[in-house]
Amino acid sequence: MTEARPRLLFVSPRFLFPADQGGKIRTTQILKGMKGGRFEIVLASPEGNGDAREYAQELEQICDRFIGWPQADPGPLHHITRLRHLLSPLPVSVVSDDATRGREVVGKALSNGVDLAVFDFLHAMVLAPDDWDCRSLMFTHNVEAEIFARHASVTRNPLKRAVWQQQYRKMQAYEHESLKRFDTVVAVSERDAAAFRALEGVGQVEPIPTGVDLDFFAWRSPGNGDHIVFTGAMDWQANIDGIEFFMDEIWPSVVERRPGAHVTIVGRNPSPALVERARRRDLPFTFTGFVDDIRTHVVDAAAYIIPLRVGGGTRIKAFEAMAMGIPVVSTGLGVEGLPITPDEHYLHGDTAADFADALVRLLEDGDLRQRLSQQARAYVEAHCSSQAVARRFDEICWQTLQGAESD
Q1: Contact 285, 247 (CB under 8 A)
Q2: Does residue 232 sit in the same domain as residue 271?
Q3: 191 shares its domain with 95
């Protein structure tokens, strides 16, 4: 090991600020909790035009040193031009995170004396050298292959289904081969951990709970109106699919019984097609786009919806809503991996009819909203503080490093 504190190189395939996605929120909270502890943290990630300078104060809170590389502008036709990667042996989403300069920066950092290398998200592996000489840990946020399989299962377009199935097979192979290279794999739920343990050749797998900043997301009594909210990056396909499902299959039944209901969708880069569909149908849906603070947009909400049908990992958004006291209505997949109980911490509905019934029931019953709000907040206070999660991650990193002494 190096003298003084062991050096931890943390490699991210994306710049972590603004922390406007579940994965970035989870990562930044963990690094913030570890900063100043037993590791010297070197963060390596791409940086946009001036992002590292703009977020210098935030970076100081999560790492001791930041090293970055320029991130190319994907351009307005990115979603079309990236289709050329369908011919690659790697999944499109993985190839899209590749960067020659990034591989050079990560390789140089690893050769300059690192005790523990942590790769954040499976996609970060595209930046890794063929081998390295230190202990290593992969921080997964999903079972990536599972996401592709779920997309294939819900799409009605035969061509899209074939593409998703192709990408699933590639991701399944890439995920398995990548995870075998690490001393430890960290998963965000026991369910994900079990899936990784079942893969041949994968080493130690450790789950961590999902955490939330309980001071930032303070509790307040839920609203009494018909205000419904959703938060999440609206350029992520799983969220787009979820809102399409809500808009097309759930909403008609809700508005028939609650004509005053209205929806606020808080999240960056909403799909123009989705916004236009809501406008054309004259739906009372507000798309905020990116906001600095979601709390001001959900403060009077009576219900928080998670109508997801695809995705993986765990949903930080569920715990954020629970912490703020907004009663949650979710599909099973929307709270997958979270050890919470229907009718005690949230209301459950997988079919469009069941989801609509649960949401209407919540909007009509003030006592139910209060009960769910208080019980959900009590649960996250007892089990889900971001500080506790950071301590657990730090301990797993330390145990991984100590494994070098027993080899």
Answers
A1: yes
A2: yes
A3: yes
